[in-house]
Design a protein that fits this description.
- The protein is 59% helix and 4% strand.
- It is mainly alpha-helical.
- It has one domain.
- Residues 1-43 have low confidence and may be disordered.
Amino acid sequence: MAENPTFEMEEGAVPPAKENGAIQPQLDAEAPPLPPPAEEPAGDALTSELLYTVDDVPPWYMCIFLGLQHYLTMVGATITIPFILTPLMCIDDNDPARGKLVSTIIFVSGIVTLLQSTVGVRLPIIQGGTFSFLVPTIAILTTTFEACHEIPLANMTSGEREEVWQERMREIQGAIAVSAVFQVLVGFTGIIGLLLTWITPLAIAPTVALVGLSLFEVAADKASLHWGISFMTMALLILFSQYLRNVAVPLLSYSKEKGVSTTPVYIFKLFPVLLAILISWGFCGILTASGVFPEGNKARTDLTTDLLSNSPWVRVPYPGQWGLPTVSVAGVFGMLAGVLASMIESVGDYYACARLAGAPPPPTHAVNRGIGIEGLGCILAGLWGTGNGTTSYSENIGAIGVTKVGSRRVVQYGALIMILVGVLGKFCALFVTIPEPVVGGVFCVMFAMISAVGLSSLQFVDLNSSRNLFVLGFSLFIGLALPKWIESNPGVIKTGDAIADQLLTVLLQTSMFVGGFLGFLLDNTVPGTAKERGLLQWRATKEGGDSDAVAHTYDFPFGMGVVRKTKWMKYIPLSPTFTGFLRKR
């Protein structure tokens, strides 16, 4: 992957100043940091505030800490998935298999993140387990297998108990891997790109906004386990990312030419999430050790010590580690609902991530590759046996908005950290000791940021138009109301076909699908002028932007000379030279 040709960072870790969205080299490393401008620079304010844009390459040591920050942001939601699944698979809380599942899902997430950020959509998006697959997974486990409380596990040998949960895992593996082939085909054949022709600001706004709004319950549930710790985490995150973001901290540095000197570093702007988590985590550790938190309190840091002690120091997850996956038609079609929901959410995530990372809106070929790589990631997750698929992580996109670091290289370092942590079992289990209220506090800030980014697409739309207000309001309201009603009334959908029931249930429980579909449908059918709908400015931004910037961000990291010389590559949906199947509207 090519380094950013516009500048090179020297040791000292001072992010370059920006003017009108362009990166300016620092003339004097010893000069004090300039005060923030009184007025916003011209251009996109989100981009102009970034310390590192998508194609920038921070120093390697900075990438390690920034990548660790991304890991800590995603690990809370990621480890929740195996913790939900293990009781359904008849795995005891103290069973070492629990730690193996956690290591496996983090290891595979690292592999898929590296693929996605390097050759997929090439945006700084973390890939990890998704709740979209939980509903069909639970349905398969509860309808195909005997309930765990009906099995005499206490009278079984360790090998027999292991076979009980591995049999369930193999069924889930097969369903995920085979259903993900559909996602690979939708992406790599360019079908998803065809739909982008009708994607408008009023379709994107509810889709992306509902990514954040629909997760309020997840954040609130974790935060409510101890509101005091959660509010402290939120306060620290807000303090660092908003109030102290322009405060530079002098750090010692050394070079042969200058010797020991101090360099101003915007540490609060770079590491607000990392600092907030570490301080809150440490505070919880002190209160746990001093006995302030009673036994069983969710803010304690010793709730998973058994997992830590039972985890091996080194263990490399591998495909087929639980045996050969099994496949059933009902399982595959049921899991297809999770695949569809995941695809819809990811397309919205791509646009949100591009906007926050200072990248042009993703072109069709990049979206095609992104969805195809996510499908490939789900196949890998099925083969390795994570018990889940992979999708784009909204919380890490929110982290970009908070930290103002949108570098692709940082996420690639984060992916390597995930792979390493997945191999080091005890190190992986250590991060599981982060209390859930701390994670909940971080989520409250991250998901709020995602919701706001979704609404920022409305800048192109005439908000004095009653037509546009109706499309937006109805899409958002039904996108929240209908999934909540479906969730509160399980089994209410009865088409006469179990697979169709499961498919519709999962899709209608997905706020991003409901709101995005309504926005997509209404904006493309209710009469309105192109100017009123914001299409003129939207097309100018999407298609009339800097073609060199689009190419630099979304081209392959290697081999572009051959791709551009090969004429038939323009017909391949994955190629950066792809011209599309349809004429531009």
